[in-house]
């Protein structure tokens, strides 16, 4: 499985939580009839897409000698290892051993294959452990399922731990400072009070004295995959549709890298949708990348032990809550593995 019984709570906390779904890469990274090596939770995987568009995700390890399957050859419905030609299908089953036909490897599922879903132009995969190989229930973000909402996916990879990316999203107050010069977050007070409001799927972290002016609220949603929803006011020059929303996710690539996924969305239809899409691609997208670049520079500049030398205050309640939640889950997963070992 994806999590060995040797994993400690510290390792899980650093490389990503198990027994849940994670975003992997944009779907466009794997064209029909192609395959691509990816790293998620510090482990190497192979994304394999058949010519009909069907996507599979396999451990990037040949069951014969451990060579990377990603160096092999795409054979339509299976991959052939470059080292000795062993063929593995999309379920992880060995279908052929050319060097010794009929040997006992054939017909056995010897390569881990993960459940995958595609939504909003992104690949999601379930990462379990020995006790939880079957995927948990997955409820996808509503804005990515609503036909009345139009969304653009923005993806980037940053050199920082995945938790820094998630914590940044649970810290609305940084919008008034780090992004003050942006086209959307220039307005509003630089002082605020916050509260946590519980929901059935997570919690809101929101300003109590300002709404609809800046980055004033965010909701953490834990629905089989962790994601956030937030809203940013738009100036009239951005066209019809009112405020725009962001669905955000983070992929734990390894201890020092994070894949960030941002779906920018608006509820628009007919000619308004066409206008919004035109304005986004010709004007607004570049401005959004400028905001993301500010986040990237800041998060990559944080030392690895930044959270060990902090002095937090009331604005950080959303971050503190997130850390406690993730630390508790990492410890619980580690204890479960210790019991399995015992």
Automatic annotation (TrEMBL):
Keywords, in A-Z order: 2Fe-2S, Dioxygenase, Iron, Iron-sulfur, Metal-binding, Oxidoreductase
Alphabetical list of InterPro entries matching this protein: Cholesterol_7-desaturase, Rieske_2Fe-2S, Rieske_2Fe-2S_sf, VanA_C_cat
Rieske domain boundaries: 21-125
GO molecular function list: 2 iron, 2 sulfur cluster binding; dioxygenase activity; metal ion binding; monooxygenase activity; oxidoreductase activity, acting on paired donors, with incorporation or reduction of molecular oxygen
A Pfam family this chain is assigned to: VanA_C
Keyword Ion transport part of the UniProt annotation: no
Protein known as: Phenylpropionate dioxygenase, large terminal subunit
Upper classification of the organism: Bacteria, Bacillati, Actinomycetota, Actinomycetes, Kitasatosporales
């Amino acid at each position: 499985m994806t999590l060995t019984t040797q994993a400690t709570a510290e390792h899980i906390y650093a490389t990503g939580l198990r027994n849940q779904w994670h975003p992997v890469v944009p779907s466009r990274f794997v064209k029909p009839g192609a395959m691509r090596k990816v790293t998620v939770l510090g482990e190497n995987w192979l994304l394999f897409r058949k010519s009909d568009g069907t996507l599979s995700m396999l451990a990037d390890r040949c069951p014969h000698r451990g060579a990377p399957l990603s160096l092999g050859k795409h054979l339509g419905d299976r991959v052939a290892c470059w080292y000795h030609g062993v063929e593995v299908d999309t379920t992880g089953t060995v279908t052929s051993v050319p060097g010794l036909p009929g040997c006992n490897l054939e017909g056995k599922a010897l390569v881990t294959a993960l459940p995958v879903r595609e939504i909003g132009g992104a690949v999601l995969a379930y990462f379990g452990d020995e006790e939880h190989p079957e995927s948990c229930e997955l409820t996808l973000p509503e804005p990515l399922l609503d036909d009345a909402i139009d969304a653009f996916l923005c993806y980037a990879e940053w050199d920082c731990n995945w938790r820094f990316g998630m914590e940044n999203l649970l810290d609305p107050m940084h919008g008034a400072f780090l992004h003050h010069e942006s086209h959307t977050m220039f307005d509003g007070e630089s002082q605020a009070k916050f509260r946590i409001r519980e929901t059935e799927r997570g919690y809101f972290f929101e300003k109590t004295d300002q709404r609809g002016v800046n980055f004033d609220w965010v909701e953490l949603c834990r629905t089989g995959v962790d994601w956030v929803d937030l809203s940013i006011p738009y100036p009239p020059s951005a066209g019809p549709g009112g405020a725009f929303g962001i669905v955000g996710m983070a992929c734990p690539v390894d201890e020092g890298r994070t894949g960030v996924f941002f779906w920018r969305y608006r509820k628009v239809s007919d000619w308004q949708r066409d206008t919004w899409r035109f304005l986004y691609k010709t004007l607004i997208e570049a401005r959004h990348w400028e905001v993301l670049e500010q986040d990237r520079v800041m998060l990559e500049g944080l030392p690895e032990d930044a959270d060990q030398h902090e002095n937090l205050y009331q604005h950080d309640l959303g971050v503190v809550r997130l850390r406690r939640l993730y630390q508790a889950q990492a410890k619980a997963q580690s204890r479960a593995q210790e019991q399995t070992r015992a």
